[in-house]
């Protein structure tokens, strides 16, 4: 694995204040940039501040102003005022803003990649996933939102005489709270369809990824998003995050299952809708006929991208017994050659864990398993020589039900390997989890892969890919079954969830009460005849 030498290649000059030799100075964000970005945060004139640090080195990164619940109320008032005018703007006009945003994200990716890496600790190749994802989601909804939300004629109660139309109205102001692990994706990609549908948004990114989120917001402003439509609050989850969701006309939360449950209870109590994108314990199955070279490369990516701090990353690996030894030999070798580095270049394969808490959680899972007799085939140790929270990509075998890593989400670069005797056994094992977010199947027979995928209770399943194929297919829904969430992002559901459907039906000629002179009984008999006729005529 690569050593800890910090590389300055690829850094945007405006991100780095003082590219000297001292690591602490090297990764500090230019205070002028930080000031101009944080001017967008809704807060009091002299707000309390929080100092963030980059997990790459532990060095200070930025001083962030913090909002209060009262500031959140101010943000909502401004958002509600702006939403009235925004929702009346033609859809085509709104869509053009997001096509410009798409271009800006790609053009300014250097700065975004630096900040994503500095805030989350991930490798640049993983940070690029976020840039690509944001561009894909922007393009998709800018092009498809008019179709997803257009008024639709629906079958009326009486053919021709009852003319029903389904309309889609924005909910109002959507509150979005996201986690720290995908600083760009989790800050803006859920906001894009919400805004396109005519809502205003109050966004509360995690403090740890606030700068990336604020750059994205500044690009949206530059793309032409009108003032007031997108408000940003910063602050801790239980107070400011809760205030953002507690005032929302629709709640969009991404984070752990534990927090998601309390968010859902609050939204339910207020009778507002909620989408919850929560945790996972994702399975990857390598069938006997898989292309093993591809499967090994795919599994390394599926398990260790973003150092495993990715909701859809693989933590359970099921190998058909006929190929298990051959696969494992190559997988262990590939895992041991993963290059760890805090560099802001494309030369590293894996970066750091996101925080001391993450390091503690990952180490605890591995040490608990080790104490109970697990075999560590690769990794299994922290790498303070590279950075304070680096941890080696780790493969465990001999995992038993008493070990926390078997069923609980590790949310780190740790995968548990099991052997199975058949596809059916693999499906049973994959479904033996409270979670149901993502899965992956590797086989040369795609039809067989689809049969296996259909039996797995997970919101997305990629065949011959770990997660990017299904996740990046923005036209199809993405989200969790079971304890992994409620509702979906992407596709039609990813935008219609932000709208109130309305049925407007115009009735012609025939009334729905007994016409003059007809008894109720006679009217019921006539209507019964009409119902029978409609069935015979194939009316839907
Ligand atoms: P977390 O639930 O602890 O926190 C998520 C966010 O919610 C944080 O910004 C936090 O400050 C905030 N928060 C905490 N309490 C809150 C409250 N009462 N009201 C409103 N906001 C509150 O999760 P985490 O550890 O930061 O993130 C990792 C988890 O997120 C993992 O379980 C991961 O699988 C999940 N995740 C899921 C997806 C997905 O799309 N399904 C994507 C990314 C991460």
Structure overview:
With 540 residues, this protein is of the alpha/beta class. It has 20 helices and 20 strands. The chain has helices at 23-26, 31-38, 69-86, 91-107, 109-120, 124-149, 185-188, 191-196, 210-223, 237-246, 257-270, 292-304, 324-336, 356-371, 404-407, 423-431, 446-455, 468-472, 493-496, 520-536, and strands at 49-53, 60-65, 152-154, 162-170, 173-177, 200-204, 230-232, 250-254, 273-277, 282-286, 314-320, 375-378, 394-397, 414-420, 435-436, 438-442, 460-463, 481-482, 485-486, 499-507. Bound molecules: nicotinamide-adenine-dinucleotide (NAD).
Rounded to an integer in angstroms, the radius of gyration calculated over CA atoms is 26 Å
- By secondary-structure content and strand pairing, the structural class works out as alpha/beta
Bound molecules: nicotinamide-adenine-dinucleotide
The main pleated sheet reads as: 7 strands, mixed
Topology of helices and strands:
Layout: H1 23-26, H2 31-38, E1 49-53, E2 60-65, H3 69-86, H4 91-107, H5 109-120, H6 124-149, E3 152-154, E4 162-170, E5 173-177, H7 185-188, H8 191-196, E6 200-204, H9 210-223, E7 230-232, H10 237-246, E8 250-254, H11 257-270, E9 273-277, E10 282-286, H12 292-304, E11 314-320, H13 324-336, H14 356-371, E12 375-378, E13 394-397, H15 404-407, E14 414-420, H16 423-431, E15 435-436, E16 438-442, H17 446-455, E17 460-463, H18 468-472, E18 481-482, E19 485-486, H19 493-496, E20 499-507, H20 520-536
Parallel strand pairs: 5-6, 5-8, 6-7, 8-9, 10-11, 10-16, 11-14, 13-14, 16-17
Antiparallel strand pairs: 1-2, 3-4, 4-20, 9-19, 12-13, 15-18
Helix pairs in contact: 3-10, 4-6, 4-9, 5-6, 5-9, 12-13
The chain binds nicotinamide-adenine-dinucleotide.
Residues 177, 179-182, 186, 206, 236-238, 241-242, 245, 254-256, 259, 262-263, 277-280, 311, 409, 411, 437, 480, 485 line the site of nicotinamide-adenine-dinucleotide.
């Amino acid at each position: 694995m690569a050593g800890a030498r910090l590389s300055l290649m690829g850094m945007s000059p405006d991100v780095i204040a003082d590219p000297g030799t001292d690591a602490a100075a090297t990764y500090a964000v230019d205070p002028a940039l930080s000031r101009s970005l944080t001017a967008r945060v809704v807060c009091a004139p002299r707000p309390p501040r929080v100092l963030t640090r980059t997990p790459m080195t532990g060095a200070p990164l930025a001083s962030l102003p913090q909002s209060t619940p009262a500031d959140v109320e101010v943000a909502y008032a401004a958002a509600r005022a702006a939403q009235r005018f925004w929702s009346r703007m033609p859809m085509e006009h709104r869509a053009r803003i997001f096509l410009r945003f798409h271009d800006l994200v790609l053009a300014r990716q250097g700065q975004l990649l630096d900040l994503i890496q500095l805030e989350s600790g991930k490798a640049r190749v993983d940070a690029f996933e976020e840039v690509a994802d944001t561009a894909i989601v922007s393009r998709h909804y800018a092009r498809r939102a008019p179709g997803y939300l257009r008024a639709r004629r629906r079958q009326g109660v009486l053919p021709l005489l009852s003319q029903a139309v389904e309309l889609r109205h924005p909910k109002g102001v959507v509150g979005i709270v996201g986690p720290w692990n995908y600083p760009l994706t989790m800050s803006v990609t859920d906001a894009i369809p919400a805004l396109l549908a005519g809502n205003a948004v109050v966004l509360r990114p995690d403090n740890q990824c606030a700068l990336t989120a604020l750059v994205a917001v500044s690009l949206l402003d530059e793309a032409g998003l009108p003032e007031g439509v997108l408000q940003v609050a910063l602050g801790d989850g239980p107070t400011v995050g809760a205030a953002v969701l507690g005032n929302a006309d629709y709640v969009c939360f991404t984070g752990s299952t534990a927090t998601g449950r309390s968010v859902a209870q609050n939204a339910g109590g207020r009778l507002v809708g909620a989408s919850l994108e929560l945790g996972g314990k994702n399975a990857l199955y390598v069938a006997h006929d898989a292309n093993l070279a591809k499967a090994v490369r795919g599994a390394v990516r599926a398990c260790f991208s973003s150092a495993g701090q990715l909701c859809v990353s693989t933590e359970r690996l099921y190998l058909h017994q006929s190929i298990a030894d051959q696969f494992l030999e190559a997988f262990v070798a590939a895992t041991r050659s993963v290059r760890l580095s805090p560099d802001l270049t494309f030369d590293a394969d894996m970066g750091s864990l996101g925080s001391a808490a993450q390091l503690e959680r990952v180490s605890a899972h591995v040490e608990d398993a080790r104490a109970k007799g697990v075999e560590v085939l690769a990794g299994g140790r922290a790498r303070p020589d590279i950075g304070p929270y680096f941890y080696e990509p780790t493969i465990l075998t001999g995992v038993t039900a008493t070990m926390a890593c078997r069923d609980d989400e590790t949310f780190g670069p740790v995968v548990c390997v099991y052997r199975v005797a058949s596809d059916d056994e693999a499906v049973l094992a994959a479904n033996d989890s409270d979670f149901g977010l993502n899965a992956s199947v590797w086989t040369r027979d795609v039809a067989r892969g689809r049969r296996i995928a259909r039996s797995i209770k997970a919101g997305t399943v990629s065949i011959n890919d770990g997660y990017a194929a299904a996740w990046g297919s923005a036209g199809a829904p993405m989200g969790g079954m079971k304890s992994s969430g409620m509702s979906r992002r992407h596709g039609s559901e990813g935008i219609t969830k932000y709208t109130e459907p309305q049925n407007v039906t115009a009735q012609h000629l025939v009334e729905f009460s007994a016409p003059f002179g007809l008894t109720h009984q006679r009217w019921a008999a006539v209507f019964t005849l009409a119902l029978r006729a409609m069935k015979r005529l194939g009316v839907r």
